[in-house]
Design brief:
about 475 residues; alpha/beta; OB fold (Dihydrolipoamide Acetyltransferase, E2P); Rossmann fold; 3 domains; 7-stranded mixed sheet; 9 helices; globular
Length: about 475
Amino acid sequence: MIMAPPESDAAWRQGELIELVIRDLSDRGDGVGRYAGRAVFVPDTVPGDRVQVRLMFVKPQFAHGRLIGIFEASPHRVQPACIVADKCGGCQWQHVDYEYQRTAKRNLVVQAMERIGRFENPPVDELLPMGEVLNYRNKSTYPVGLSEHKTLNREETPSKVHGKVIAGYYQKGTHAIVNLNQCPIQDNRLDKILEIVKQDIQKRKWAIYDEKVNQGNIRHISLRVGRRTGEILLTIVARDRRTKDLWEQCKEWMERFELVGVCLNINDRKTNAIFGDETSCIIGRGYLNEEFAGLTFQVRSDTFFQVNTEQAEKMLEAIEGMLELDGTETILDAYCGVGTLALPLAKKVKKVVGIEVQESAVGQSRLNAEINGIENTEFHVGSVANILPTLRGLNPTIVLLDPPRKGCEDTVVDQMLAMKPAKILYMSCNPATLARDLKLFCDSGAYRLVRIQPADFFPQTSHVESAALLVREG
């Protein structure tokens, strides 16, 4: 197979074969090499690999390539634990040894702080590693589809005749389902369930949703387990309630798998969002109990709760150390969710005020506070930008920010600067938006970046969580 001469500009075009040495890992999980002074991003590669790559998507200053062969393997390359790791889009780094994953994740945070935040020598601590790098996820949600699938006419209903029921994760960069019966990164107590549920859906001849024509019914299978309690909750996500013999089948699953409950979530929208707004309990109870940071939490199928229970506790301990609490503080938790941070911290401060846009999450925060006998909290429903002006007289000592991946809205940054808390603790799953927002706080002259603690919540993937501490100047 002919390749272009080394570092040839003539080879910088789609379809060309080039030789490349991988030097780094990107925040999307791809290996990165340089060819003729330009960056080339190649999935399934490891720094230290010398590889043959076909250029697939070429721009003037960068390209995306497909791995064709490995001339010389990196010492950091390992055999993946999963047989479909090269196809499944769930994990990007199963072929990378864990020690190097740790190094790479810290580097992602450092690079974002330097390139986007413009911080010189950013104060990034060593990554908090995971002890168990497999079997850690307490929740898995699988899209459901059909093998041997054909595009349906709008008059047709997806059913058994169109193929075998499959479920898994999407193939990288597509919506093609990689069929799985178990997943090595999820809690292994869930492994016994997925295959049987698929078989039962097949036997019942339940219609499978086809996103191309917005027809059919069953969309996702969601499994959740309490890491400390062992309680398991199964949820079927469907387009509507018209599911024959639903109660009978749920009763079978309840008994066979010793579940605490089986739920049905209705999502009738043409959307990539997994859950709809309506969840009902078919049998048992619609939540599981989990022990977290010495507290009991009720967690529903559609509740956001960190998927890595043990690492979330480690990060909470690190945050408590960073904040140096003395019991006199008032904390504003500006994106509080179900109170995962707010409730444990409430035990150690004077008062916690939480804001959360999702009404059901606020309801759970209040309920979990009541369950644990915590009385020094209050929770408000709405966006941070809308609720803050209504909290007259609130002068928090500390503000916790844990926004979605897109980061804080500009108005929220402005509101924090006007509020002038002594400390801001910003937790983020996206180093790029974290760096952007930290720069806004520090460029104002009002705050100084003291410390960033990265943590590995998602071994075998490129995702990294970070907690950054800002201290008010003057």
